[in-house]
Design the sequence.
C-alpha cells in the first residue's frame, strides 16, 4: 500500500527575514498560494512582525515564530503563553532543560508547538568550543534532542545532516525535525555551515524545511518557491515509491 499523499507546500517554511512590514506584506502577496507556511524571526518580529503573524494565522497560513526564547523559567512560561494567544503554530526556544520545561508549561493545552533549537546551523565544532561546550556538534545535537523529547517538546531544530541519526537514536516520529540551512544546489551558503539541498533534506527525514534568502532574495520569489516546492514533491514521490 502506498503512503498517503502529502502536500509539498506543508514541508516548506519561508523565512520572512525582511527589514519592514511593508516588504513582508508584498512578498506574501507575490508568493500567494505557492507558500502556506511562514517563519517570522527577530528582524521582522521586532518590526510589527508579531501582529503580522497574528493576521497571517487568522487568514489560514501556518505561522512559526522563531524567537529562540531562553530566560528564567517564569519569563519563558509567560512569553510562551503570550505567543500562544496570537494563534501561531510553532515557537522556538533554546534547548536548555529549564527553558524547555517552562515552555511546555506555558504552551499548556494550546495548539502551539514548541521547537527546541539544538546547535545553530551556522555553528561548527570550532564555534561550539569557543562557546565553552565540551562536546562537538555530533555529540551535542543528539544529547539535546533526547532531553527535548523526554521533556515533551514537539519538535527539534537541527541541520538536515543530523535528522537520520536522530531517528536512529530513538527520537520518535511525533517529534518533528525542522531543518534550516537548506540551499538549492548551486546556491550561496551565506552564513550557514551545515547546508543541505531540499531534496537531500526530505530524503534524510526532515519534516519541515526553513528557507529564506534563496526565495526572498530571488529575482522572482514566486518562481524560486515553486521550484523548491517541486523539488520537495519529487523527493516525497521517490520516498513513496520506495515504501
Sequence:
Amino acid at each position: 500500500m502506498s503512503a498517503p499523499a502529502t502536500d509539498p507546500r506543508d514541508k516548506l517554511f519561508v523565512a520572512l527575514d525582511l527589514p519592514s512590514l511593508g516588504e513582508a506584506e508584498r512578498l506574501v502577496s507575490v508568493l500567494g498560494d505557492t507558500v502556506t507556511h511562514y517563519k517570522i524571526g527577530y528582524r521582522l518580529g521586532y518590526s510589527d512582525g508579531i501582529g503580522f503573524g497574528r493576521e497571517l494565522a487568522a487568514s489560514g497560513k501556518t505561522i512559526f515564530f522563531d524567537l529562540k526564547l531562553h530566560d528564567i523559567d517564569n519569563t519563558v512560561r509567560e512569553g510562551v503563553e503570550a505567543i500562544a494567544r496570537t494563534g501561531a503554530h510553532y515557537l522556538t526556544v533554546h534547548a536548555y532543560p529549564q527553558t524547555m520545561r517552562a515552555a511546555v508549561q506555558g504552551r499548556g493545552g494550546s495548539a502551539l508547538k514548541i521547537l527546541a533549537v539544538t546547535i545553530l546551523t551556522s555553528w561548527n565544532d570550532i564555534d561550539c568550543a569557543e562557546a565553552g561546550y565540551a562536546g562537538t556538534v555530533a555529540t551535542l545535537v543528539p544529547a539535546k534532542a533526547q532531553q527535548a523529547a523526554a521533556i515533551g517538546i514537539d519538535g527539534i531544530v537541527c541541520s538536515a545532516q543530523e535528522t537520520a541519526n536522530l531517528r536512529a537514536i530513538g527520537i520518535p516520529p511525533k517529534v518533528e525535525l525542522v531543518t534550516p540551512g537548506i540551499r538549492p544546489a548551486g546556491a550561496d551558503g551565506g552564513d550557514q555551515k551545515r547546508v543541505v539541498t531540499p531534496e537531500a533534506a526530505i530524503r534524510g527525514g526532515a519534516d519541515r524545511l526553513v528557507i529564506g534568502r534563496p526565495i526572498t532574495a530571488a529575482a522572482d520569489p514566486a518562481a524560486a518557491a515553486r521550484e523548491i516546492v517541486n523539488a520537495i514533491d519529487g523527493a516525497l514521490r521517490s520516498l513513496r515509491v520506495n515504501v
User: Anything to note?
Assistant: Residues 1-5 have pLDDT under 50 and may be disordered.
